[in-house]
Amino acid sequence: MTSLLLQRLVLPVIKSRNVVPNLFHMNEAIPCTNTSISSVRNYAKNKDRGKDKKGKGQKVEINPTMIAELVDVNKLKSKCQEAIEKMRDDFAKNLSIRSTTGSIESLPVKYEGKDYELQELAQIIRKNPKTLVIDFTSFPQVIPDVLKAIHSSGLNLNPQQDGTRLYVPVPKVTKEHREALAKNAKAMYIKCRDTLKDIQNEFIKKSKKQTGVSEDLIFNVTKQITALSDQYQADSKTIYETKHNELIGK
């Protein structure tokens, strides 16, 4: 018996080679034919094989009403928009192809912990098309802070001090000048992008701290906050790329 079981396990196909004699029933011959016994294995199919994981690559539909169940969605949008508008303002003030009087006037200067525009601290005169004069006669103590602001502005200016006045040569529009402005534009864009990511993380943390709500709701809101942030990041990138092409002359 044991030998027979081993044969069935080892041999997938067992063929009978013996000739079976004809049997007789009621004086009639009943022919018998050789038979073959085959073992067949059926393999279960993996329904998920070759398919993407559920939900992978699917676009997240943003539902402000759902987000509002856990966080202030209007505040989220407002903070993201403010970050983008700040980048726009920085581009307009600091990344002009020509360093015009207007861009100098609105140059932000930090003095004693407060922010001022340069025109609030000094008188700005265009002496000729190639030179600006900034007069600090009535407020000379602010000159070091103004020099610091000019050097970090990305305007590619090299002011020369003479007493209470700064003489600022307006640089020619060279390839190097354009590349320097484009580099500053990228730095401003990266700062904006990082700010948007910080806002995203801030609101995700707030949503996860909510109590008395389902884990599914927290999970879905987290995905939607990320998707909303991604939209603002995409907008900021488009604005940057447009400015970059403008600066390098594309």
What features would you describe in this structure?
There is one protein chain. With 250 residues, the chain is α+β, with helices and mostly antiparallel strands. Among the domains are: 64-90 and 175-248, Topoisomerase I, Chain A, domain 4, CATH 1.10.132; 99-169, Gyrase A, domain 2, CATH 3.30.1360. The protein has eight helices and ten strands. The protein has helices at residues 2-10, 64-67, 73-94, 101-105, 118-121, 143-151, 175-208, 215-248, and strands at 13-15, 23-25, 28-30, 36-38, 108-111, 114-117, 123-128, 131-135, 160-162, 165-169. The protein has a four-stranded antiparallel β-sheet. A two-stranded antiparallel sheet has the order 1-4. It has a two-stranded antiparallel sheet with strand order 2-3. It starts with a helix and ends with a helix. 20% of the residues are buried. Mean pLDDT is 80; it is low at 10-30 and 32-56.
Which tags fit this structure?
250 residues, alpha+beta, Topoisomerase I, Chain A, domain 4, Gyrase A, domain 2, 4-stranded antiparallel beta sheet, two-stranded antiparallel sheet, 10 strands, 48% helix, 16% strand, elongated, Ribosome_recyc_fac, Ribosome_recyc_fac_dom
Sheet with most strands? 4 strands, antiparallel
The assembly state of the depicted protein chains is: single chain
CATH superfamily of the domain at 64-90 and 175-248: Ribosome-recycling factor
Enumerate the strands of the largest sheet in spatial order, edge to edge or round the barrel.
7-8-10-9
Give the N-terminus to C-terminus distance in angstroms: 88 Å
Q: Estimate what percentage of residues fall within beta strands.
A: 15-25%
- What fold name goes in the CATH topology slot of the domain at 64-90 and 175-248? Topoisomerase I, Chain A, domain 4
Q: Order of helices and strands, N to C?
A: HEEEEHHHEEHEEHEEHH
Family: Belongs to the RRF family.
Keywords: Protein biosynthesis
Domain Ribosome recycling factor: 88-247
GO molecular function: ribosomal large subunit binding
